[in-house]
Design goal:
The complex is a heterodimer of chains A (475) and B (354). Helices cover 49% and strands 13% of the residues of chain A. By secondary structure, chain A is an alpha/beta fold. Chain A folds into 2 domains: 250 residues, 3-Layer(aba) Sandwich (Rossmann fold); 133 residues, Rossmann fold (3-Layer(aba) Sandwich). In chain A, strands 5, 6, 7, 8, 9, 12, 13 and 14 form an 8-stranded mixed β-sheet that branches. In chain A, strand 7, helix 9 and strand 8 form a beta-alpha-beta unit. In chain A, helix 16 packs across helix 17. In chain A, 51% of the residues are buried. With 354 residues, chain B is mostly helical. Chain B has one domain: ABC transporter involved in vitamin B12 uptake, BtuC, CATH 1.10.3470. Chain B contains 14 helices and 4 strands. In chain B, the strands form 2 sheets. Chain B has a two-stranded antiparallel sheet. Chain B has a two-stranded antiparallel sheet with strand order 2-3. In chain B, strand 2 and strand 3 form a beta hairpin. In chain B, 45% of the residues are buried. Classes of the chains: A alpha/beta (475), B mainly alpha (354). The interface between A and B is large, with 58 and 56 residues.
C-alpha cells in the first residue's frame, strides 16, 4: 500500500515536472505574444520601471517606486507627453544585481522603451556595460557611477542632479561652514560608516581628497549588507570619539545606525547622512531619539509642492494613487517623482527634435543630453522651490551640482542650511581621471563633444520655436 | 515501444563502454544538440539568451563542479561561490595585467587558480567530515569575500570595489552579441560536461565514489584519501572557477564581491540537491529549476493578465517556489534526475507495463 502511494506521488511529481518543463518552454512564446499585445496600442511611450518593494531595502524602495509611478500616472492624467500616452511596467529586483539584469533584459526590448532607472549602484554598474549595445539611456538621479558625469566616455549614463561626489563634497563644505571655515576642519576626526558595496565606497575617493586638502582625519568603517549588525562599527566610534559621523547607508542600515548612535551616546546632531540616509523610513523607527539627526537633501527635501497637490487631486482623490496618500511629499517619494520627471522631460526635449511621437531609447538619449529645465519650466512643472534649474550637455551629464542639508526635528524634516555648490576644482580632475581609467579598461574610444555641442546650439533655436526669436534677431 | 534496447547487441568492449549505449539515447542527444545549436538560435530572443539561457548554462557548469565534490565525493561544501569569485577575479586580473592572452587561455588559467585555492581549502577535509567540513568551507566563503572587498590589488584599485570587464575576444572573434555569447557558453558547457562525464566514470570518479560511500573501506581497498579528496576539490573548484569567470565576463559584465555571496553558494547547493546528487544531468535540471522557475513564476500573473502588485507577485513567487522545493524533495528525495530515470524506466515498458 505504502509503496503504491509512493508510486503515485512519483507519478504526480513526474507529471508536474513535465508540465513545468512544458510551461517554461512555452514562456518565451507567451512573453512575445504579450509584448506584441502591448505594442498593438501603438503611439505610446514605454517606461520600464525597476523597483524593489520587497527585501531588506523594500521600506526605502517602495516610496521611491510609488513616487515614480505616480508621476507617470499624473502625466497620463494630464494628457500625456504632448499627447503621447505613457505605458509602464514594474519589475521587482529586490536590490539584487543579477535580478536587476534580468528585469533590464525583460523590459528593454519593448517597443519605445525610453530609459532605465535601476535605483541601485551595483545594478547601474552592470547595466552601464550593456546600455551602449542596447542603445538605451540610464538615468541615475543621485546615485550610480560618479565619473559617469563625463559624457564623452559615458554617452548613455545620466547622473542627473548630483552624484555621490557632489553629495560628499557639499557635506564637507557644510561641516566647514559649521566650524567657521574649511581650514578649521584641520585636526578634526570624521568617521564614515558606509554600506560595504559600490554604493557605500563611492564617496571615499572624494572624502580622502578633501581630508588631504583640509587636514582632517578620515576613518572609514564598512558595514556589511544588509547592515543590521553594526555593533563592531559603533564600538570603533566609541573608542575613537570622532567629531562627526557620516552615514552612507541604505535601507534598514540607516535606522540601525541611528539606533546604535543612541545606544553609544553619540550626539545625533553631529551625525550627517548622505542623501540616501535621510528619509522618513530611516528616522521614524527610532522615534524621538532621532531628533537632531542631519542628512543631505538631494536638491529637494520633504514637503508638498504644487505637483504633489496635483497628484493628490488627480490620482489619490480618485483612488488611483499608487501608495498611501500621506506618503505623498515624503523624501523618497519626491525623489522618485523627480527621477520620473527627469525621464519625462528628456522625452519632451527629444520630441522637439524628432517630432511628437513615441521615441526610441536612442532618441530619448538626445533629449537627456540637451535638457534645459530653467526656473520657468520648474514653475510650470509645479516644482517651485523643490529643485534648482538643471541643464545638461554632451560633456556634462549631471546638469546641476547643488545640495543642502536638512535636519529631523522629531516629526518632520526641515532645511538647516543654504544651497551649496560642489567644488568643480576638486571633482572635475577626479572625474577626468576615473573616466579615463574606465575608458582604458573597457577599450572605449572617447567621442568628441565639439561637434555635438555646436550642433545642439544650432539645433536649439530651430527646434524650440519659442526661443527662436532671440538668436534670429541677433543675426 | 519506441524506447527499447531489444536487439542492440554489443560485440566489443568499446561499444559496451560508450557514454550513451542505447541508440535512442544517441539520437536524443543529437536532437538535443541540434535544438541547442540550430533551432534555438533561430527562435530565441535576446531576452531568452541574456536573462535565461546564459545564466542557466553558467550555473549548470558551477553545479556540475559542486556535484563532483558533494554528489560524487561526498564532501559537503558551502564555498562554491567563493571559488567562482576566485575564478572571476583571476580572469579579470589576467585580462587587465596580461592583455595579450587569449580568453580561452584566461578561462583555463582562471579555473586552474581556483583549483589551486580549492585544494588549499580542501586540505582540512582530510581530517574533518560531513557538516564540520561544511563549516570549514564556509570559512572559505567569508575569507574570499573579505579578500576581494579589502585587498585593492585584486580589483585593480577600483575606488568602488566594482570591476568591469573588457569585451571578450578569441582569435579576433569578438563575442558580444547575445547569440555569440550563448554559443560560446554552450560550447564550453558541453566540453566541460563531457570531460566531467569521462572523469566520473573513470578510475578517479570511482575512487571519489568509494570515498563517498565509505572512506574506511575505500582506504582498505587501496584508494588514497589524500589523492581522492584533493582531486575532487581541485576539479570541483576548476569548474566553479570557469563558471565564475563566465558569470563575470559573459553574464554580468561588471561585478562586486557581493555577486558571489553566500546566497549563491546556497543556491548552488540547492541546485544539486533538487537536481540530483551524483548526476551530471541533475546539475542541469537543478540549474533550470533554480534559475528559470522563479522568473517564470514572477511572470505568470502578467502573462495571464491578472493585475496584481509587483510586491505581491514577488511574495507569491517566493511562496510557490519554496513549496515546490519542499514538494519535489518529498516526492523524490533523489532529485529531478531520478525522476527522469524513472520516466525512462517507465517508457521502456510502455505501453505494456507488467
Amino acid at each position: 500500500m505504502a509503496a503504491l502511494l509512493a508510486m503515485k506521488a512519483r507519478a504526480v511529481a513526474l507529471a508536474i515536472g513535465t508540465i513545468a518543463a512544458a510551461a517554461s518552454l512555452a514562456l518565451p512564446g507567451a512573453a512575445v505574444a504579450q509584448q506584441k499585445g502591448a505594442a498593438a496600442g501603438k503611439g505610446e511611450q514605454f517606461f520600464p520601471v525597476l523597483v524593489y518593494r520587497t527585501g531588506a531595502y523594500g521600506p526605502n524602495g517602495t516610496p521611491w517606486a510609488n513616487g515614480y509611478v505616480d508621476y507617470l500616472k499624473l502625466i497620463n492624467a494630464q494628457g500625456g507627453i504632448n499627447g503621447v500616452k505613457i505605458t509602464y511596467e514594474e519589475c521587482e529586483t529586490a536590490y539584487d544585481t543579477a535580478r536587476s539584469v534580468e528585469c533590464y533584459e525583460r523590459l528593454k526590448s519593448r517597443p519605445n522603451a525610453a530609459v532605465f532607472q535601476p535605483l541601485s549602484t551595483g545594478a547601474t554598474f552592470a547595466i552601464t556595460d550593456k546600455a551602449p549595445t542596447d542603445k538605451i539611456p540610464i538615468i541615475t538621479a543621485g546615485y550610480g557611477r560618479s565619473e559617469s558625469v563625463e559624457g564623452e566616455v559615458f554617452p548613455w549614463n545620466f547622473p542627473l542632479g548630483g552624484t555621490y561626489w557632489t553629495a560628499a563634497d557639499v557635506l564637507v563644505q557644510h561641516l566647514g561652514k559649521q566650524n567657521g571655515g574649511l581650514d578649521k576642519l584641520k585636526g578634526k576626526k570624521i568617521a564614515l560608516i558606509y554600506h560595504d558595496s559600490p554604493y557605500g565606497r563611492e564617496p571615499i575617493p572624494l572624502l580622502t581628497e578633501r581630508s588631504k586638502l583640509h587636514g582632517f582625519q578620515l576613518t572609514t568603517i564598512p558595514v556589511t549588507h544588509p547592515g543590521v549588525e553594526q555593533k563592531a562599527a559603533w564600538l570603533q566610534i566609541r573608542q575613537q570619539r570622532p567629531d562627526y559621523v557620516i552615514l552612507w547607508g541604505w535601507g534598514v542600515m540607516n535606522s540601525t545606525a541611528i539606533r546604535e548612535a543612541v545606544a553609544t551616546g553619540f550626539p545625533r546632531d553631529k551625525m550627517y547622512g548622505g542623501w540616501w540616509s535621510g528619509a522618513e523610513p530611516d528616522v521614524l523607527p527610532v522615534g524621538a531619539d532621532a531628533k537632531g539627526y542631519n542628512a543631505m537633501a538631494f536638491q529637494h527635501g520633504a514637503g508638498r509642492a504644487k505637483v504633489h497637490e496635483d497628484i493628490l487631486k488627480l490620482l489619490h482623490a480618485k483612488g488611483q494613487g499608487t501608495g498611501p496618500a500621506d506618503e505623498v511629499g515624503q523624501v523618497l517619494y519626491t525623489r522618485g517623482l523627480i527621477s520620473a520627471m527627469f525621464a519625462v522631460e528628456g522625452v519632451r526635449q527629444a520630441q522637439l527634435r524628432y517630432g511628437v511621437r513615441p521615441l526610441t531609447g536612442e532618441e530619448v538619449r538626445y533629449g537627456l543630453e540637451n535638457l534645459n529645465i530653467d526656473q520657468k519650466r520648474i514653475d510650470a512643472l509645479g516644482l517651485t522651490g523643490v529643485i534648482r534649474p538643471l541643464a545638461t550637455n554632451c560633456r556634462d551629464h549631471e546638469g546641476s551640482r547643488y545640495a543642502r542639508v536638512h535636519t529631523w526635528d522629531g516629526s518632520k524634516w526641515n532645511f538647516s542650511s543654504d544651497w551649496f555648490e560642489s567644488d568643480d576644482q576638486i571633482i572635475k580632475p577626479m572625474i577626468k581621471d576615473f573616466a579615463a581609467r574606465y575608458a582604458a579598461e573597457k577599450k572605449i574610444t572617447r567621442r568628441s563633444c565639439e561637434a555635438e555641442i555646436a550642433a545642439a546650439q544650432k539645433a536649439a533655436p530651430a527646434a524650440a520655436p519659442a526661443k527662436a526669436a532671440a538668436p534670429a534677431a541677433k543675426k | 515501444m519506441l524506447y527499447r534496447e531489444n536487439g542492440q547487441f554489443k560485440t566489443s568492449y568499446t561499444e559496451d563502454q560508450q557514454i550513451l549505449p542505447i541508440v535512442q539515447d544517441r539520437w536524443f542527444m543529437l536532437a538535443l544538440l541540434g535544438v541547442a545549436y540550430l533551432a534555438l538560435p533561430a527562435l530565441a530572443s535576446d531576452y531568452m539568451y541574456r536573462a535565461l539561457i546564459i545564466p542557466f548554462l553558467i550555473l549548470a557548469i558551477a553545479a556540475i563542479g559542486l556535484n563532483i565534490l558533494v554528489g560524487y565525493c561526498g564532501q559537503i561544501s558551502l564555498g562554491t561561490a567563493a571559488f567562482m569569485s576566485i575564478g572571476a577575479y583571476a580572469a579579470y586580473n589576467l585580462v587587465v595585467r596580461v592583455p595579450m592572452l587569449n580568453f580561452l587561455v584566461v578561462l583555463v588559467l582562471a579555473g586552474a587558480i581556483a583549483a589551486l585555492v580549492g585544494v588549499l581549502f580542501g586540505i582540512p577535509s582530510l581530517r574533518i567530515k560531513g557538516l564540520y567540513l561544511a563549516v570549514a568551507t564556509l570559512a572559505a566563503q567569508f575569507f574570499v569575500d573579505w579578500v576581494f572587498a579589502r585587498v585593492k590589488w585584486f580589483t585593480n584599485y577600483s575606488a568602488s570595489g566594482s570591476v568591469s570587464t573588457a569585451p571578450i575576444e578569441i582569435f579576433g572573434w569578438v563575442v558580444d552579441s547575445p547569440l555569440e555569447k550563448y554559443l560560446f557558453v554552450l560550447t564550453i558547457a558541453i566540453v566541460l560536461t563531457v570531460a566531467a562525464k569521462n572523469l566520473v566514470r573513470g578510475h578517479i570518479g570511482r575512487s571519489w565514489m568509494a570515498m563517498r560511500d565509505m572512506d574506511v573501506a575505500a582506504e582498505v581497498i587501496g584508494i588514497r584519501p589524500l589523492y581522492a579528496k584533493l582531486t575532487a576539490f581541485a576539479v570541483s573548484s576548476f569548474y566553479a572557477g570557469v563558471a565564475g569567470a563566465l558569470w563575470g565576463f559573459v553574464y554580468l559584465g561588471a561585478w562586486e564581491p557581493l555577486a558571489f555571496n553566500i546566497n549563491m553558494s546556497l543556491n548552488l547547493l540547492f541546485m544539486i540537491i533538487i537536481g540530483g546528487m551524483g548526476s551530471l544531468l541533475g546539475a542541469y535540471f537543478g540549474a533550470a529549476f533554480i534559475v528559470l522557475l522563479p522568473i517564470l513564476l514572477n511572470q505568470i500573473p502578467g502573462m495571464l493578465g491578472i493585475p496584481i502588485s509587483t510586491a505581491l507577485a514577488s511574495h507569491l513567487e517566493l511562496m510557490i517556489f519554496g513549496s515546490l522545493i519542499v514538494f519535489f524533495l518529498i516526492a523524490e528525495p533523489h532529485g529531478l534526475a531520478r525522476l527522469w530515470a524513472i520516466g525512462k524506466e517507465k517508457l521502456r515498458l510502455w505501453p505494456f507495463p507488467h
